[in-house]
Each structure stands twice: as structure tokens, then as C-alpha cells.
Fold each of these.
Amino acid sequence: MKRESGRHECQNCGREYNNVDVAVKENNVNWPSHFPENGFCVDCGSTNIKHISNEAGFEETFKQYEEKCREILPFYQELGLLTNFEVRNGLRDYEVLRQRVQYNIKH
Ligand SMILES: [Zn+2]
């Protein structure tokens, strides 16, 4: 996972940033980097933004995430509330995803 190498976290409010573009050609994935240019946290204005590094930590987090998904997904699937959406363009996909979810809830 290349994304891990650019992960940063604001030590004050916990907001995460990424200063590396992530592109996976075969999946048509293109996440632009996301980092405050002036070095100030967008949320709290702190400059105490630190690089998070350790692959092991990431894998552990990802494993927990997968396990949680396995537990809750069948529940939402049953309710017909599940939206399958692959984020391919990072934050630029947010609006599309939001509309898709809202459509699902209303129909
Ligand atoms: Zn912050």
C-alpha cells in the first residue's frame, strides 16, 4: 500500500492528511494528495502535523476495519441500505458518493 508512506496526522485534532498522490492504473484509481500547503491544519490551524509511518500499524488497522465490515455488512444488505462504491478519485468522489447514498435511502 503506497498510500501509507504519505500519511500524516495533526497531533492537535487528529485530522489526517496525505502528501503523496496515489494512483493504481489497473483499477483506475487516482487519489490526489491532500495536505495543507502552508503547513497549517485546515481544521484547527496547528502546525504540529506529523508523518505516520509503520506499515505494521496500518495492516493492523486495516484488518480491524475488514473485520468490522464483515460483521455489519450483512445487516445493511438485508435492509437494502448498502451502497457499493469504489472511491477512485479521492475527495473529488465525495459528492457523487453522497448523492448515491441519499438516493438509496430515499428509494
Ligand atoms: Zn488539526
Amino acid sequence: MERIMSGAYRKLLVPLCDPDQYRGLSARLAELEQFETLHPQEQAAILEQRTRSLLDHAYKTSPYYRLVFDEVRFRSVDWQYGQPIPLPELNRELLRANMESLCSRAFRPDELRRFSSGGSPPTAMWRDVEAQREKAALEWHLNRLSGTAGARILELRPADRQQDGDMSSLRPTLQERIQGRFNALIRNADDDTFWNLLRFMNRRKPEVLRGPASLLAMFAEWLRGCGMAWHRPRRVIATGETPSPESRQTVTETFGCMVTRQYVCPDIGILATECEQGERLHFHPLSSYISLAPAGQSSEGSIYRLIITDLLNHGMPLIRYDSGDSVLFDESPCPCGSWYPSVSAVLGPTIENLILPDGTVTAGVPIVTRASRSFRSVHGVQLIQRAPDTMHLRFSSDDNSGAADRELGVFRKTIEDAFRIPLRWTLERVAAIRGETSGKVRAAVCEIPQDEHGRPLKH
Ligand SMILES: [Zn+2]
């Protein structure tokens, strides 16, 4: 009862407190509900019209897209829903270099809202207010479908060292209190951070805990050994790469609740939620139009790069934006019956894929996370694959007692088990694992030359 009351309270108060996000929320939610009841053909007609109108809008009002459309002689009338949009891809580098000319001239500066992408380093992005409200409503709608709309949520966000804010951001603003949403920026997944999180969780009792799967798994393992009781949320939502079955089990057992997945593109926001029957991530078609570019093979199937057209941004249109993530795709219809586009797993950043001795490509982040599990004295590692059987391992540690060496031994053994061949290793102790020029710290890096499909080049 208390929850229902607090949900209604928020629904009334939230639009007043944050009109830029939530004005007209109830009407928008009703429209979304109506959309779900339509026949797939009626839905496709609406989606085609919306996508085409975004394409036209981009061509007419964004200098960047006018050039790009003209260069490949593309017009939206030549395109049908379900077909790829034949435009070149947009990526973060192009986005940063063309920020100004990407923005639509149809909006005055005061009609655009700046938001910071969740990528690293964060990039200033723009969205028109109307689309921002539609996006907020869609997120509310997706949360409602998964039974978490209006719930008190504790969100774990990995943060760069350079980024502002730290655990002190756990002191919520009034707005956060009303929305019941608390952000914890995590710089280091260490003891201090986890103690703070535990205290906060026990005091605020969030109903939902949400964050990248690898961070949730580390926190869960830490809780098991901390010797204190912890609050149990009623739902854990894993974002980022799909957790391994073992991590998922650890998280489920530790928090004693269901774990579901969401796909969140750092530059665009939440785009997909997991269905229970098929355990696939379905992209809501009102939010994005996705396409998949082949990027190699793995033992679990074909790997694709995820290319996204954001349908909820007319202020700075993002058409065929490379999410930077690779995914596994299963072309059979999902057992849940939904036609909404789905992927079976998010493998993590494409650039962090590793190449196994037989030439198959595998996601690097889950392998490194799994192998790092026993780290206590080692603060961080970066695995660099220089040849199919040659690895360079950067690590940081203050330990000189031999504990770090033992932990690194376990790490190397786990990697070799995954590769099923003996590997040649070089080790390098560094003060800290540094990010690239973009600021992004990569857990794994593949330096083997690859073709545009992610296949290793043969010499
Ligand atoms: Zn499904």
C-alpha cells in the first residue's frame, strides 16, 4: 500500500519538480500503452512514418546530414521500415568533431537541453525538450512493464578519476528524494566504496539496484565476505555487458531477488529491456531503429556491431550511430512472441574483443572480469593481445610480498584455460591502469590487425 501511495505521489509531484522531463507524463504513458495494443502492421506503419520524418527533418535542418545524404544520394522516400538506412555510420569521434553542424537548425538554443553522455570521457550531448519528455516517458513505460516504475532506485555508475563527484553524491538532492533515484558514482571498486554503498543501501532501502553487471557481481561478492547484514532490493537490473551465468547466480543469491537486464547506450540512454521467456533484450521500436553489422564469429554465434538510430532526438539527430558495443543475435522468433528487435547478449565494447587460436572472436571484458575474481593485492589489469598466442599484461599493485604474483598466476591460468593453449606472456607493472586518449580504460585490447568485419588479417 505504501508503495502504491508513494508511486502516485511521485507521479503527481515529479512533473511539477522536473517539467523538462516529465510534463505531460500521464498523457504520454497512455499513448505508449495504446501503442502496445496495436497490431504489428499498424505499429510498423507508425514507426515507418516516424523514422522517415526524423530522416527528413535531419536532411532539412542539420547541415551535417544534408552533406551526408547528398554525398550518397539518399532520400528517405527510397527507404522502407525494416530495410537498412544506406547512410555512413556516425561514431563518437565524428560526433565530437561535428557537434555544431549535427544540431538541428529548427530549434532555438533555449529549446535544446544539454545532457552529459555516460561514456568516458563524458561528452556534452543535446536533445530537444519535447524528445526529452518522450524519452523520459518511454523509460517510465519500460520500467512499468518490468514492475519498477516509480520505485526507489540506487544506480551504480562507474566514474573516471577526472570526473566530478564521488560517493558524496550519495547525499541526494530534493529532486532525487522525490524521484526516489540515487546515483552512486564509483571510481574504485574497493573496500571504502563498498562500505559506503552498504551503509547507504541499509539506510535508504532502495527497491531496485541497477548498474553494470561486472560491478554488481563484485559488490555481491564483497557483501558475502563483509560480515554485515545487507538490505535486499526486490529487483536487480544489470546493464552493460551480459553477465556470465556464474555472475548472474552470485548476484541472484546474494540479493535474493530476480536479476533482469537492460541495455543502456551511454550516449543515448536506455534502449532495451529483457523479456523473461526468451531472456533476450528487446529494443523498444519507438525509441530506436537498430541495425547489426557483422563483426566476426564466436563460439556462441555470430558477433555484430550494434548500430543505432535514435528516434527520440530531433535536436541533435543521431542516425546510424555506432554504439561501440558488440552483440549476439539470434534470428529465430523470440519465445515471448514479441516482434520487437532483440539480441541475445551484449558482449561489451567491440574494441575489447579478443581472438582465439582458431580465429573466432570472443568478448574480452567477461574473460578479464572472470579471471580477475581472486584479486585482492592487484588493483587493476589490462590484457593486451599482441598475437593469437602472445599476451602483454599491465597491472598495478603496491604489493611486494608475492601475493600479487600469486593472484596474477591465477589470472594467467584462467586466461589460458579460455584460450586452451599455452600463451606467451610479458608483464609490466604500472602505477595505475591509464585510459586511452579518449579517457576510456579498456580491460582488454586486441592489437592483431583485423579487417572491417573484425576478422584477423592473414599474413
Ligand atoms: Zn522476448
Amino acid sequence: MCLLCVAKSSSWSSPRRAFLLLAGAAVATPLLAQVDVGESSRLRTLVPAAELEGAASKQYVQMLEQARAKRALAPDSHLQLQRLRAIASRIIPHATRWNDRARQWKWEVNLIGSQQINAFCMPGGKIAFFTGILDKLKLTDDETAMVMGHEMAHALREHARERIAKSQGTGALLSLGASLFGLGQIGDLAANVGTQLLTLKFSRDDEVDADLVGLELGARAGFNPAASVTLWEKMGQAAGGGGAPGFLSTHPTGPDRIARLRENVPRVKSLYEQGRARR
Ligand SMILES: [Zn+2]
């Protein structure tokens, strides 16, 4: 995306948004969004959302069981986990603006003991943070909310559906579709797709989309959007320190990313002030 275009187009004067408003086609883009992102990709509709969310849920349970077996799953009483859940509970009420399916999602937040700098939100609202991202980057609540908002945005904007639609052969997609009618082997396919979910690498456009939607989600929940800038600066420093598995390998940071966020902070400032007043 051209930085200049982002700077010049306001939410209301953008011809694309005006068209969407007129056409009533902004199904996946809330009309009152302050950040300028388009509709979710139509390609994603090739992968049934309910099936993918079911596969993600299974994969999430499996991952938690593995962590529990290694005594690496934080108990409910863990202070960092309580902090994560408190942050999530403030952001979640704003999620349906971006995806109506989120009304039915059973959101979960867990903390895994691992030195990896990592966090994710699987389709259907299954969130996990690794202790490494909180400890190594010494994230403030605002910065943590920006990571969470970013990851929730990937799920809400259904980037995994789009990625899988692009990566799967047509045959596999047809089988996944057929399974809806009781014809396919959904068990195996769901397991395969579920495994993929943990290693998905999103496109650059998906990352821009998640940055901006996440920024707005966090601001609406009353978290300081300026923290998105310090967050990515910290990520950059961590990446520069060598050895960057997990999040950093799938989320390259750089001047473009930080400049785009910095430019968008003023757009969500009033949302942040309203969100903070509600706290
Ligand atoms: Zn991302």
C-alpha cells in the first residue's frame, strides 16, 4: 500500500468507501471504521468458516494439552494470564464490528511458558501468548493490547481462510466443501488444516490489514494506539539482537510498518479518548 495514499485518503472522502456505502457492500468493513482497509478477500469464502473454526478449536485444545503435559500451561491463577484475560475482555466487545460471526465465537485466552517471542489468535477466537513475548519485550498493557488486537484482526478478517484457499489444491477445497454435505472425510482434512493454522505465514497485505484493524480495536477498548509504535520498535530491537523465531520471523518489522502505524494513530485518537472515558 502506498503511504501517500493512506495519508491523503480520509475515511469519508475515499471514493472506494463512498462506493461501498452506496452499494451497501461493506459487509466485512464496518461503516464507521476509522482506519482505511477494504473488504475481506472474497477468496476466503472458498473455505467454509464453520469448518475452519472447528479445525482451529481442535488444534488449540491439542496444543493446550501438549503444553499442560510439559507443565507449560499457565494456571488460571497466573498473574500474567489474568492480565491477558483482562485486556482481551476489553477488546472482545468491539470484535463484532469487524466480523458478525464473532458473536458466536467462544473466545479463549491462554499463556504458554516458552521463551519464544510469539502470540496468535486462531480462527474462532482462540488466543495464546507465549511468556517470551511478554518478558523479553517487557510489554506494557497498551503494547500487549496492540499485539492482541493485531492477532484478533487476523482472525476477524479471516486471513487464514484466504491463505488456505490459496494454498490448498482445488480438490482439497472441494472435499472440504463436500464435507458440509456429509460427503467428505472432514476428520482428516480438518486435522491437516488445523496443523497448518499454527504455521501460517500471512501476506504483507494481511499484515497491513491486521496492523490497522488491530490499532482501531485496541483504541476502541481504551488502549493507547501510540503503543503500536513502541511495540514494533521493541520488536525491531529484538529482531536485531539475533535469533528471531516465532512471531518475528512471520512479522518482519521495519520503517514502513512503523511509519504507517504512526500515521494512523491520529485517526483513532478520538476513539481512544472515548474508550478510555468508558473505562
Ligand atoms: Zn500478523
Amino acid sequence: MSGSKKMAAFLNLLSFYVLGQAAKEHGGQHQEIIPGTVEADNSSMCGSPSSLHLTPDWDPNIWAYPPRCESGDGGNACLYTSSSFAGGRGISIIMPPEIAGNVTKLPAFTEDKLLDAANRESDLPYEAKIIPGRGMGAVAKRAIKKGERVTLFNPLVMIHVGSRGVPAPEKMRSMQRQAIEQLGSEQQSLFLRQHGEFGGDEIEDIINTNSFAMGGVGGEEHTFVAIFPEVSRFNHDCRPNLEYTFDPSSMTQSTYAARTITAGQELTVSYINLISPRAERLYVLHGGWGFKCNCPHCARTLEEIDISDMHIQKLRSIWPNCGEIWNPEQSCSVDEAMELTWLAKHERLDGQWQAMCYFQAAKAFKRSGNEEMAQKYHQLAFDNTRILRFEL
Ligand SMILES: *[C@@H]1O[C@H](CO)[C@@H](O)[C@H](O)[C@H]1NC(C)=O
Ligand SMILES: *[C@@H]1O[C@H](CO)[C@@H](O)[C@H](O)[C@H]1NC(C)=O
């Protein structure tokens, strides 16, 4: 349980980055599978695989339509839509049929009341507003305490990362369009109100611009691209005041305040790895999302930027010896760990990064026999994030 949490959290740190880069991958031969036709395949000349022209096993109590499947070199990719998921919110999932059974066995599908508190847009402590120079954003309606949960949502659409390259691009686009059309009209407008940055096919553009990576759904090795329209409101900041995590069993994403937020402040998440120097941040954000980073941390004076970049370089140089906090073999010294916590604090890496540095200090003190300092830093780690659990 906490193992998969850790995996998911580490994945989160990179998710936006990876997706920005991988968003445009396509390819593979394909063959259409027509749902419901049970004829034997007679076209297996030319060495093409004699795939079953069958609808895979599916449970009509869960899925509202027979799955639509497309096949290619990488196997089959099928579209499943549930209208009743999460108390009628609904969800469309594109995935290999082999894992559909695992997905529908998740508590998200089987435990009736599990998602009662999720997906409540009316209770949110923020509202959408135009932010000068940044387009639409989310602004706090009231003070939000550090560690408070801000959102809890299921995705409207999930696409297995391995399925994205299976059908030919035009088949995938048609499948993605159908994924939206099979949702209710309210959900469709929720999806379509999201911003697309790159142009081209509207749905694909929205997916490429707003995807989160969601790991461990239906098996440790499975990663999905997931769209949470409500969470797409959050703009990027290199020093965000929210951090987020996924729970694969409930298929929810939660965001938590990484520091105390006052009424009127914009709520932000980071789309990229926080431990990046400015030039890298500009490059990755422009390549992945098409915008020039203008967050306060990118817009600082040249002198401040130099200092921050030096901090980041230093952090990166200590990280190999101290960064893998779950690795019992690491021999991070008290001095190194204390330098890490100092750097994280001065770089305002609020939330899980700061907490990981404190935890590394706690472990270093424990190794050196200083139990009192170990406890103190363990507590600091605990106080600084809600999305990782630390056991000394
Ligand atoms: C498959 O091909 C054979 C030989 O051409 C033909 O007799 C048979 O009817 C075909 N079967 C189907 C299901 O099309
Ligand atoms: C389904 O889940 C089981 C148990 O976690 C796992 O062993 C299996 O590999 C999963 N199936 C697929 C196709 O990933």
C-alpha cells in the first residue's frame, strides 16, 4: 500500500515532464475490430496476424457500450465507457482489453460509497478567474491551511500509455472523440472547456495539453494518461502552492496545500520537475506546453536567478547520495542532509521535496546515533507533506 503510494508520488514528480515530451508519439500498423461481429478472420494472408474479430469479454453492468477496439502492432486498444462510475460522473477509458478486468476489480468500481466525497466542484475553496497575463486560473476564495486537501477528483478520461501508439493516429483520434461523446453532455462540456495549446484535433489537443500521468492502475506496471478537467484550472508555477498525488485504488487525484494560502492568491501546481534550473524550465515548458515561463520564479532578477540555479545544481549534486530516500543503502551524511534541508528551504521547495530532505536528515541523525534530532527531523518531514509517508 504505502509502496505503491511512494511509486506514484515519484512518478508524479516527473509526470508532466514525461507527458509533455511523449505527447505526440504515434505509430504502428492497425486493423479494425468491429464490435459484435463473430466471423472467422479470413484475411490472414500477407502474414498479418489473424486477430479475433470479437468484442472482448465485457460486463454490461459496468460498461454502457460494447467496447470499441482497434488493433495494431502493440496488440489491441479498446474504449470502455461507464456512465454510472463515481455516482454518475462517468468515465471513458482506453486500454488493452487484458487489463479491463483488473481495473473493474478496483475499489473505485466496487466500493459503493468510496467516491462519495470526490468530484464535488461546488465545494471547492477557489473560483475560476482571469489572471492578468496568465489567462484563466484558480483563485482562493478563502485562506487554505498548509496540508489541507484542496481537490479530490476522478478523471473523466484515461488512456493507457501503451495504447496510445497502438492504432493509427486517425483511428486513435476517432476513438478519443468517441470517448468524449459517450460521456453525458455535462461531462462533455466540462471536458471541452479545457484549454488546448497546440492546435490540430481539438480533443487530442486538450488531452496533450492537460494530461497527468497516473501510475499503478490495474497493476504496478500500468501507467495511464488521465484528464481531470477541474484540476486543469491550475496554472503552472515553478514554486507551486499545491502538490498532488494519485491513489490507484480509488483512481483519484488529490491536491494539497504545500504552504498556507491566503484568500485571493492564485492556486498553482508545477507541470515539471521542481529541481530544474531556469533555462531547463523555460525549455521544457515551451516544448511541452507551448508557453514561455513567466511565473515569479522565472521572472526574478538575473542575480537571483544565478543564486537559485546554483542552489539547484548543488541540490542535484547531493541528490545521488541522499535523494533515494527509500533506499536503505544510502549513506547520506548529516552534513549533506543538513545542506539539503537548507537548500530546499531557501529554494522554497515546499511540500514533498522539503519533506524528503527533512526525512533524509532524520535518517542521517539516526545513523549517527542522535535519536533526538532524528525524531525532530522526522516530525518536520511529516509536517511538510500529506502525500508521502515516512517511517524511520
Ligand atoms: C473464408 O474463405 C473461404 C475460402 O475463400 C470461404 O469459403 C469462406 O466462406 C470464408 N469465410 C468467411 C467467414 O468469410
Ligand atoms: C492484474 O493484476 C494482477 C494482480 O495485481 C497482476 O498480477 C496481473 O499482471 C494484472 N494483469 C495485467 C494484464 O496487468
